[in-house]
Amino acid sequence: MTSERPGGTVKLGQYEIARIGYGAMQLEHVDTAAAGAAGALLRRVVELGVNHLDTASFYGHTTVNEHIRAALHPYPDDLVIVSKVGARRVDAPVPLALAQRPEQLREQVHLDLTSLGLEQVPVVNLRRADQGPGLIAEGDQVVPLDDQLAELIALRNEGLIGAIGLSNISTEQLEQALPAGIVCVQNAYSVLDRSSEPQLQLCAANGIAWIPYFPLGSAFDQIPSPTEHPAVQEVAAHLGATPAAVCLAWILAHNDHTALIPGTRSIPHLEDNLRAANIHLDTEALALLNTLS
To answer: Which of 6, 59, 72, 147 could potentially form a cystine with 28 if both were Cys, beta carbons 3.0 to 4.6 Å apart?
Structure first.
């Protein structure tokens, strides 16, 4: 581990990434008129030692990718941009639709390459849609995992993506995908929701980075926020930290294969998230937090 990266580092395939990265999804709510604010935040992200950005072409109509490119291109050599495929943006009351078919995955990778200004996307996560949260596949969007992996392997062989990750998957699907050379898994996970613990342990056993989403809860599908739990607030008060930083610190302490991608549109909030790297949870605090699941 290095002192230059928030929380030290973890392996993401061939890359060494900061254990606290940045999830850029919230920047889809920053329109082009306020692009300066998005650019200032992204540049601050990099200044603080973060070298892991998580994005997707369907975060806005490539809005987030365009913010990243405008702020950071030409990219630092050590910046690892990770994208996600499996959905697409549409002009409809529900602005997101599934795009699970192999040819649609390829289209999304090309959209990432164009909007980010890359010759290769370092890591691409396949977001499955067999279960919530969010949209669930039906009709022609019910696609065998092996068919999707075959397309991603082809894209990797062509040099258009560097590595393959998975998102929103079961233990059985992860086991099925292991021969493809999976480098990371993104599943919902927090100090209150450890239903994906078996997947985390399988990742740890195979040297795969575990990158939880919704570590602080989400209004999406009414996922509860652990920051509101009395035990979290008690630990935070004792340490003089925010409840959010305590929740992130617990995830880092729980398993060394974990990396975080908390998102925000605020530089002060970004800096608070990164303070989780400096929080030491003593035995008593860990014991209390470990009882919450």
So the answer is: 59
pTM given for the model: 0.94
Place of tokens 């990778």: 109
Rounded to the nearest integer, the mean pLDDT of the chain is 93
pLDDT single digits (tens) 102-119: 999 999 999 999 999 999
| ∠ Cα 192 216 112 (to 5°) | 125
Q: Is residue 15 annotated as part of the catalytic site, yes or no?
A: no
230 has pLDDT over 70 = yes
Orientation of helix 243-254 relative to helix 230-239, angle to 10°: 100
Q: How far apart are CA 200 and CA 218, in angstroms?
A: 20
Q: What is the DSSP string of 225-266?
A: PGGGSHHHHHHHHHHT--HHHHHHHHHHHH-TTB-B----S-
